[in-house]
């Protein structure tokens, strides 16, 4: 499982974004949350360095088989019979943030215990496993293929709860609690108001220019410029696309092929905008923090989002 997948609400936290260049619409999504998620400690299984003790002589054959099955299921991170005080001492003494082990508690009844180190504290959880279902802590919780994936998911969840709360509160204050409503409708409402204001300014300027041109015109004047606006814009765009095509061709072959496949896929997703509400700019807002290398403390990704949006829009021409 990728460390980018987080538990519960963490997995739905936005990665980053911004408005179009020169747009009066301010950014809604923030990349700080995604960067905090990446800073979560990585899982570090603590391997058992000792020979597992034999079960007590009074143990039944079923208990012995369960202990052997646990050793096969959890591997070297299974420490056999161990109390919580010994686990805390072992993790606190030799383990760092994210270290964990699996043990059988002396008072357990049909379950094993996951001991996990986070924020200088050791936490203990009942650990269950069902064949064909996976590992889980409670019946209603998510299932995982391995204990490592479960710990990675939990560490991201803990890290986000510890560090992301102030940023979420700050975002709510900046956007006047827009997250209590639909972020999609909030963003589009702002765009519509901004577009209406811009169209009003454009119409007023066009009317003024038309009146001035009517007074200054004479029969000998050329009716249109030698290079009208529309062909000029097309030429500029063609030049930019050619430069972008030359830039991506400088990438290593593996990067070039992977980027081409990714952009063509995103273009197909954007073609269903009427259904999924994800156009090129929205997709660029989501993927810019992961596809484009940026300085560590950079939070304004407006230019990167605009560039990635252009790559998605014109991918067939750029990779032709």
UniProtKB/TrEMBL annotation:
Species of the source: Drosophila persimilis
In the record, biological process GO terms are:
compound eye development; imaginal disc-derived leg morphogenesis; negative regulation of adherens junction organization; negative regulation of epidermal growth factor receptor signaling pathway; negative regulation of ERK1 and ERK2 cascade; signal transduction
Q: Where is the composition biased (Low complexity)?
A: 1-13
* Keyword Cell wall biogenesis/degradation appears in the UniProt entry: no
Cited SUPFAM superfamilies: GTPase activation domain, GAP, SH2 domain
Q: Does the keyword Glycosyltransferase apply?
A: no
- Which keywords has UniProt assigned to this entry? GTPase activation, SH2 domain
Instruction: Please give the PANTHER family that the UniProt record associates with this protein.
Output: CHIMERIN FAMILY MEMBER, RHO GTPASE ACTIVATING PROTEIN AT 5A, ISOFORM A
Enumerate the spans annotated as Rho-GAP domain: 142-319
Name the segments for region: Disordered.
1-24
In Swiss-Prot or TrEMBL terms, this protein is called: GL16471
Recorded GO molecular functions are: GTPase activator activity
> Domain SH2: where?
77-151
Q: Name one Pfam family in it.
A: RhoGAP
């Amino acid at each position: 499982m990728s460390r980018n997948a987080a538990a519960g609400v963490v997995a739905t936290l936005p990665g980053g974004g911004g408005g179009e260049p020169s747009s009066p619409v301010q950014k809604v999504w923030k990349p700080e949350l995604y960067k905090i998620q990446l800073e979560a400690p990585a899982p570090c299984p603590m391997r058992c360095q000792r020979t597992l003790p034999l079960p007590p002589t009074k143990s039944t054959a079923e208990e012995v088989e369960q202990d052997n099955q646990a050793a096969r299921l959890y591997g070297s991170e299974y420490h056999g019979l161990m109390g919580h005080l010994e686990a805390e001492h072992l993790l606190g003494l030799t383990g760092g943030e994210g270290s964990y082990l699996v043990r059988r508690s002396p008072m357990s009844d049909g379950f094993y215990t996951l001991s996990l180190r986070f924020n200088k504290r050791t936490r203990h959880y009942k650990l269950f496993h069902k064949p064909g279902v996976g590992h889980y802590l409670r019946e209603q919780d998510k299932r995982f293929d391995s204990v490592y994936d479960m710990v990675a998911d939990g560490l991201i969840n803990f890290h986000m709860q510890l560090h992301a709360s102030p940023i979420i509160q700050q975002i709510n204050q900046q956007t006047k609690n827009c997250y209590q409503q639909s972020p999609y409708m909030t963003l589009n409402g702002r765009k519509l108001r901004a577009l209406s204001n811009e169209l009003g300014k454009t119409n007023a300027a066009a009317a003024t220019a038309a009146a001035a041109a009517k007074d200054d015109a004479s029969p000998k004047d050329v009716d249109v410029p030698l290079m009208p606006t529309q062909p000029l814009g097309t030429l500029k765009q063609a030049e930019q696309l050619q430069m972008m095509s030359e830039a991506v061709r400088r990438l290593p072959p593996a990067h070039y092929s992977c980027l081409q496949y990714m952009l063509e896929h995103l273009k197909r997703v954007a073609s269903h905008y009427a259904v999924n509400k994800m156009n090129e700019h929205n997709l660029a807002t989501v993927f810019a923090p992961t596809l484009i290398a940026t300085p560590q403390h950079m939070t304004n990704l407006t230019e990167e989002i605009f560039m990635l949006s252009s790559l998605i829009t014109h991918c067939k021409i750029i990779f032709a």
